[in-house]
């Protein structure tokens, strides 16, 4: 069963965002990790890297594919989840909590308005699944 936490916003590229003030914690959705299967490696930006909305900030590799991670917001990376560099399996087992990837100091919180709420993301996943 897919998990869609209510406290997150979602991009159409299957990235979630948890907002706390001007900070955005970012990771991949449960749906994304399920589609990818077992994750083999992860390429994330360095701390202090600047992210542009709708541009790649890294990549994720599974047995099935290598996929670019597309940033849902613009801002500066202030933290990287070191736990997932030590144990990549956390991204599969707990993608919405301990499997977070980066924390970004957002430039423009208004960019969040383009993201989907839980219901909108659920509908998007259903539509996308019907097309596949």
What structural keywords apply?
single chain; 132 residues; alpha+beta; OB fold (Dihydrolipoamide Acetyltransferase, E2P); 3-stranded antiparallel β-sheet; 4 helices; 9 strands; 23% helix
Give structural notes.
The protein has 132 residues and is α+β, with helices and mostly antiparallel strands. The protein has one domain (9-121): OB fold (Dihydrolipoamide Acetyltransferase, E2P) (Beta Barrel). Helices cover 23% and strands 33% of the residues. The chain has helices at residues 30-36, 82-86, 89-93, 118-131, and strands at 9-10, 15-20, 23-28, 39-43, 50-51, 56-62, 66-70, 75-80, 102-106. The strands form 2 sheets. The chain has a 6-stranded antiparallel sheet. A 3-stranded antiparallel sheet has the order 4-6-7. A hairpin with a 3-residue loop joins β6 and β7.
